[in-house]
Amino acid sequence: MKLSILDYVPIFEGRTATQALNHAVELAQLAEKLNYTRYWVAEHHQVFSVASSAPEMIMMSLLENTSSIQIGSGGVMLPHYSAYKVAEVFKTMEARHPGRVNLGTGHSMSYKNVNKALNEHKTIPVDYENQIDDLITYFNSDSENNINHRYTDLYVMPLIDTKPKMFVLGTSKKSATLAANRGLPFVIANMGQDKEQIKSVITHYRSSFKAQYPTNHPYVIMTSFVITANNKHQRQDLSYAFHLWLLRIGYLDQPKFYPSVNYVKQKSFSSREVEKMSQQNNRVIVGSPKEVISKLKVMMNDFDADEIMIQPHVYGEGNRKHLIQLLATENFEYK
């Protein structure tokens, strides 16, 4: 089973953003040694407990400190930005590290004030599908003489022989259709949605893709939160910390850090909080390494996915490293 990683770059209790970013580099280096396929960085704005507001910046740091693993964005929220500028940034990374740069795109609007700030002075709403078309043109213009584009004689520098790999993120048939129509891989999160709905979206993507590109292969990456550790008590502790984080980021008074296991143990929860946390259980896969790999394999088969992208969003640098080591070892033995 092909395994990859999606990182939110959490800022743990008692840690700084600098430490969080340094840890992301260490985790990517370990993931490379463990033969993970990709290491992607999410984009989140005004979430105080994560350091991934500028995934492109983190990506370059990861690229500079690894040598073979694919590094990408999961993903750049494209409507906030100029497709031309995004193309320049990703082509620059590709020029420096040919064949290793992944551009995953999404179109989340984020918080209202974040959306307003990121789209300041725009008078015309940006069309996401047009931006995808623009990026495809920009990345291919070096060899195709930049034809059929609305900006005449516009090139994206630098001119290079390779191009970033593009991926479309989403959970709807609209996003699946966009990916299929452009012949791009599709990345879908499994976060407790209705199982049949997810299957329907993926089936739609595959059939639409094959109808337009019969000689090419559609490609689906599925992502999910995972929690594992050596024993049940460790897994339980990490799960409580994760669920508290997940619960609190939805509040106006969101946490300034990812809570530690000790913090959670000292906290008393209201019955309403306990109920809401239990409702989120289907958003994360928890178990022994063998159980998690088995569940991921079942998920991969059930949803006809080609690759699984885990989100090791647990407390503690050592716990995160151990998590990806345990799963890599179990996945190898599973084969």
TrEMBL record:
Gene Ontology MF terms in the entry: oxidoreductase activity, acting on paired donors, with incorporation or reduction of molecular oxygen
CC terms in the record's Gene Ontology section: cytosol
Pfam families registered for this protein in UniProt: Bac_luciferase
Top-level taxon of the source organism: Bacteria
Residues in Luciferase-like domain copies: 1-298
Gene3D superfamilies with a match to the protein in the record: Luciferase-like domain
Sections of the chain in a coiled coil: none
InterPro entries for the chain: Bact_Lucif_Oxidored, CmoO-like, Luciferase-like_dom, Luciferase-like_sf
UniProt record similarity statement: To bacterial alkanal monooxygenase alpha and beta chains.
Name of this protein: LLM class flavin-dependent oxidoreductase
Source species: Staphylococcus shinii
Lineage of the species this protein comes from: Bacteria, Bacillati, Bacillota, Bacilli, Bacillales
